[in-house]
Amino acid sequence: MFKTVLFPIDESRESREAADTVAQMVKTFNSRLILLSVNEVPVEGEEPPPPERVMTPEAIAELLKNAQSMFSKLGIEAETIEREGKPAFIICDVADEVNADLVIMGCRGIGLTEEGLADSVTNRVINLAPCPVLIVP
Predict the structure, then answer these.
(1) Rounded distance between C-alpha atoms, residue 2 and residue 101, angstroms
(2) What is the three-state SS of the chain?
(3) How far apart are CA 94 and CA 36, in angstroms?
(4) What's the sign of the alpha-carbon dihedral 104, 106, 109, 112?
(5) Average pLDDT for residues 71-81, to the nearest whole number?
(6) Which neighbouring-strand residues pair with 6?
(7) Closest to 99 measured CA to CA, from 67, 126, 129
(8) Which of 21, 47, 90, 112 shows the smallest number of beta carbons within 10 Å?
(9) How many CA atoms are closer than 13 Å to the CA of 64, on its beta-carbon side?
């Protein structure tokens, strides 16, 4: 049913907690797992993202390596993708590129905006994704 699962990750607690659900889904459906980390970069003319939402390339590589290792210990092979840009848009673009059948993400990542949940990364992905989105509370 879910041949390809996209799991966008960041350093948030919610992202770490969603990993259990991802592992269960991938094992249940024998899915291909793709881990995605998006480094939010400032867009010209916009206010830069808060420092806690900007990661160094080394930190992103380490985050993806650790996540890949954790899934490997569970017997799950995971591919990794690193991107820069606006997280919600990148998540949806990558979901489309890899033909994801499902995006799984935590309910509140580091990308919760100052405007609140209505303008959160999660809410934007729900509204823009080309496939179903499973939000893990």
Answers:
(1) 5
(2) CCCEEEEECCCCHHHHHHHHHHHHHHHHHCCEEEEEEEECCCCCCCCCCCHHHCCCHHHHHHHHHHHHHHHHHCCCCEEEEEEECCHHHHHHHHHHHCCCCEEEEECCCCCCCCCCHHHCHHHHHHHHCCCCEEEEC
(3) 8
(4) positive
(5) 97
(6) 34, 103
(7) 129
(8) 47
(9) 22
- Can you give the length of the chain in residues? 137
pLDDT(32) > 80: yes
Query: pLDDT tens digits for 121-131?
Result: 888 999 999 99
Q: Are 89 and 121 in contact (CB under 8 A)?
A: no
Place of tokens 């990542």: 109
Say which residues have a Cβ less than 8 Å from residue 39's Cβ, sequence separation at least 6: 54, 55, 57, 60, 82, 83, 84
**Global confidence as pTM:** 0.88
Q: Average pLDDT of 21-28?
A: 97
Let me know: does 15 contact 109? Beta carbons within 8 Å.
yes
7 touches 34 (CB < 8 A): yes
The pLDDT of 2-7, averaged and rounded, is 97
Of the pLDDT bands very low, low, confident and very high (cuts 50, 70, 90), residue 79 is very high
